[in-house]
Structures are given as structure tokens and as C-alpha cells.
Amino acid sequence: MIIVAPMTDATKTAWITGAGSGVGRATAVALGALGWRVVLSGRRADALAETARLARDAGGHPVELPLDVGADDPATAAAVVGGRLDALVLAAGLNHPDRAWADQGMAVFEAIVQTNLLGVVRVIDAALPALRSASGIVVVVSSIAGWRPSPGAGVAYSASKTALAPVVRTINDQEGASGVRATHLCPGDIDSDFLQQRPSVPDAAARAVMLSPGDVADAALYAITAPPHVRIDELVLSPLSQR
Length: 243
Known about the structure:
By secondary structure, this protein is α/β, with parallel strands linked by helices. Helices cover about 40% and strands about 15% of the residues.
């Protein structure tokens, strides 16, 4: 039986986008196990409800806050999060099977950029006042495609993820005086629902040697729980089988 401790004024708060599955869900559960209040955002209410259940069972204090970072204004959501935010984890992402110049459509390209780049920037902008109040940390869950060329990731995905590096760098350059830190987290292949967006979905054997969402969540926690004077600018992790 898991006994959930009551919230106190010292309870830390994290806002997690893309919390309905994969790395976002795993991070919510991991922070829940530390007793955090976890504000869960994503597009699917049913998926958020399941993440909330898992985080609550782990000992956390979940709040469900549906949000499509590619389409919705995050300002209202930021007001629900509150005036103090210890961590912001940006795990929402989008890709599409049509990834080459020969087959991509501009509407799809724009949707990917809206989610992977502009959605990240909009949420950070809305959350910065609360992050400054807590000397909080931003963890941008990017991709190995944001760290080195990955042709199979696609034109739009690679462009949007590569652009996240300077987003993180400017936060660290400009917000350090407020105690705000940011980490560009670049994982390789992950066995998650995101694989369904590939042109060819990997089989069970291929998935078995990939990172798990929990592996990446552990890396996010490493950055989040580092001492306040420690800034982890970029963190790359890959499965041994990564090409």
C-alpha cells in the first residue's frame, strides 16, 4: 500500500508537456515518487488521466491540464501552474512518416515546427516568471537529431530539434542571474509510442535494444536534482545500438 504524503508549502512543482505517454509520463511518475506536485499537459485527456493515476500511486500530487502546445495559448495554463515553478519539462513532440523533400507537405512541416520549436518557446515564455521565482530548471527533451545530423529523422523534425540548442543556450546566458538553468536533453532511439510516426515501424527485436522512456526520465531527473549552482547545458544519451 502506497501512502501519499500531504502537500506542504515545501512541495516542489513541475510542469510537464507531452505528459500523456513516453518520456513525459515516465518523468511525471519519477517526480511523483519524490513527492512532487506534477502538472500534466498533453492533447489527450484519457492519457493524462492514466499518467495522473500512475504519478499519484507513486506518491505524487498530479494536476491534469490539457494543452496542445502546437495550437493552444499556454498563458492560461501557466496561470493554473501557479506563481512558483521548480521544473519545466518539455517532452511534447511531433513527426510524420512523410519526411523527405520529395513527399513532405508544407502543412505537415509547419505543424511539426509549431509543436517541436514554437510550442517549446511559447511554453517557456509563459513559464519564465514562475521559474524565476523558484530559480527553476528547464529540461528541453530534444533528440539526437538536435545534436548531430540524423537524415532519417526528416527535414522538419531535424530543423525543429536543431533549433532547440540555441533556445537552451540563450536561457542559460540570459536567465542565470535569476537562478534559472536549462538542459538540452538529446536522446537516441526510444521504445515508445512515438515510433508509430516512422515510415516503417521498428519490430520487437529492434525495440528491445532501444532506450526506455524511464532511461530518459532518469537523465531528466539527473539535471533537475543537480545542486542549484550546477548547470548541465547539454546531455546526450543513446542506446548501444544507435547508428
